[in-house]
């Protein structure tokens, strides 16, 4: 399993190099699929998805110079025959999961069947997460509540045994101070990585490495 769990995307050279190492090839020689689903449960989500794809919002993610880039919409998959989209997943080099609502993304990962396919896919495909797209792979997720899902719906998939709290000390998220995130991490029964937008967590077959040109902290309850 190869994961690159970012707070905000490929925001610096160190994170970019980590991505290249995981791919085993230059980005210009790799294919990617972008999953925007999580952002639809966020106000103005459709436009945010467009801007992330175009590269006009946030740090580089879709606009990294991929050999090819497609869009995979999870809400459509339950009504599409698997032979149309599963081979596409198996052939791509990287899956790019955008940010938004963890609970909404987790639900559609499960409903689409992609959650069941991930363990086999990630033997060769690199999973690249951004914010909520990173958090759902851990033991902790959040929700904004702008959806009609049952409250008891899962907020994460729990494929790695730690929690991730992104956007540390970000000006857009005034509640994400170190002190506040430490208080939140103290309520989670597993170790938590508190990371800013210049930091990512690289996971290869269970081995965890912090990639950072910024600030982060490992909080153990």
Walk me through the structure.
The chain is an alpha/beta fold and 221 residues long. It has a single domain, classed as 3-Layer(aba) Sandwich (Rossmann fold), CATH 3.40.50.880. It has seven helices and ten strands. The strands form two sheets. It has a seven-stranded mixed β-sheet. It has a three-stranded mixed β-sheet with strand order 6-7-10, with helices on one face. Helix 7 links the parallel strand 6 (163-165) and strand 7. The two termini are 26 Å apart.
Summarize the structure.
The protein is of the alpha/beta class and 221 residues long. It contains seven helices and ten strands. It has helices at residues 13-23, 45-54, 82-91, 102-112, 114-121, 132-135, 178-185; strands spanning 2-6, 31-35, 68-71, 94-97, 126-130, 163-165, 192-195, 199-204, 207-212, 216-219.
């Amino acid at each position: 399993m190869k994961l690159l769990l970012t707070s905000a995307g490929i925001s610096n050279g160190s994170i970019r190099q980590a991505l290249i190492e995981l791919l085993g090839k230059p980005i210009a020689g790799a294919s990617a699929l972008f999953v925007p689903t999580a952002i639809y449960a966020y106000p103005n989500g459709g436009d945010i998805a467009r801007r992330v794809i175009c590269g006009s919002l946030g740090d580089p993610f879709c606009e990294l110079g991929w050999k090819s880039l497609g869009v995979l919409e999870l809400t459509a998959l339950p009504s599409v025959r698997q032979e149309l989209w599963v081979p596409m997943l198996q052939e791509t080099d990287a899956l790019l999961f955008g940010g938004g609502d963890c609970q909404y993304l987790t639900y559609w990962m499960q409903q689409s069947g992609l959650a069941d396919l991930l363990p086999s896919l990630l033997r060769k495909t690199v999973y690249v997460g951004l914010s909520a797209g990173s958090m759902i792979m851990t033991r902790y997720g959040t929700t904004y509540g702008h959806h009609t899902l049952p409250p008891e719906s899962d907020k994460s998939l729990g494929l790695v045994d730690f929690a991730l709290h992104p956007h540390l000390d970000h000006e857009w998220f005034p509640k994400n101070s170190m002190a506040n995130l430490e208080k939140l991490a103290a309520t989670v029964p597993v170790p938590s990585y508190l990371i800013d937008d210049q930091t990512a967590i690289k996971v290869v077959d269970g081995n965890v490495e912090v990639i950072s040109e910024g600030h982060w902290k490992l909080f153990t309850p």
